Amino acid sequence: EIQALHAAIGGVSLLLGEDLIQCSKIPTLPPVSFLLGGVWFNLTAQDYVIQIARGGVRFCLSGFQALDMPPPAGPLWILGDVFLRTYVAVFDRGNLTGGARVGLARARSREAGTQGGGPARAQGTGWRAG
């Protein structure tokens, strides 16, 4: 799944499972969306491309990385820092009637400071590019 996602966003494989992205293509890269609990959560290229500057040189890496987890535990996705920088997660493990749950909402934009999204309950997985 990660290889297909990297192909969709133009990633070039490096060692250790990381993919290089052309920094100049960030404005034209497609959004990547995850379907959780019947709600689509969208990540823009600015959300999922990690930009690094070292010694006057800038390079960009995909924030998505493969984790080889064979069945029956896998395949699985870990929605880590790339997702959690963009969405606020509230974990409710004390719900005695409905079981543990997670609430997700769009985090405030650093630039805008006031934008945010409404909450959504999440269960399940899926992804799409474009």
TrEMBL record:
Domain Peptidase A1: 1-105
Signal peptide: none
BP GO terms, sorted: proteolysis
Residue ranges the record marks as coiled coil: none
GO cellular component terms, A-Z: extracellular space; lysosome
InterPro entries: Aspartic_peptidase_A1, PEPTIDASE_A1, Peptidase_aspartic_dom_sf
Chain intervals for the UniProt region annotation (Disordered): 107-130
GO molecular function: aspartic-type endopeptidase activity
Gene3D superfamilies the UniProt entry points to: Acid Proteases
Family stated for the protein in its record: Belongs to the peptidase A1 family.
Name listed for the protein in its UniProt record: Napsin-A
Organism: Neovison vison (American mink)
Gene from which the chain derives: NAPSA
